[in-house]
Amino acid sequence: MWGVAALVFFCDLLVKGYLRHNLAFQSIPVIKNIFHITVVFNTGAAFGVLQGKTTFIIYITVLFILWLFIFLRKEKQIKPKFAIPYGLIFGGALSNLYDRLLLGYVVDYIDLRVWPVFNLSDTCITIGIGLLLIYSFRPQKQS
Predict the structure, then answer these.
(1) In this structure, is residue 33 part of a structural domain?
(2) What average pLDDT does this structure show over 35-39?
(3) Which domain holds residue 58?
(4) E strands, 4-77, where?
(5) Domain for residue 29, yes or no?
(6) Residue range 78-101: average pLDDT?
(7) What predicted TM-score, i.e. pTM, was given to this entire model?
(8) In total, how many domains does the chain have?
(9) 12, 99, 111, 122: which one is catalytic?
């Protein structure tokens, strides 16, 4: 789980750092009108809600990360199928928190043209939550 979290954190950190320094406020079509790399600086949360409320978002994120950490510590053993989703969520949350603490905004760059611009961390958090929901509601195999 911690390896997945570290991989998400550092991959997103490298991509965001490169794009922030080299392509800020630019939009580069990868597949015209479908997928662009558009570098924006988001001072809000997902979909741009709570713009300018960075301090509030930082507090909420820190509380969430602490809650998740405590929850995971209390679990005697995390089932292997849950390790990857928890790692995706933890790594994504830490990466966006890092941006907010150091920069005052989150660097977003994945632009699908029909959705607000987002980043790898947002994707990992969403996939992690989706996997947790699927695994939680899937019937258990009887031995």
Answers:
(1) no
(2) 97
(3) 2-19+39-136
(4) 27-31, 35-42
(5) no
(6) 92
(7) 0.87
(8) 1
(9) 122
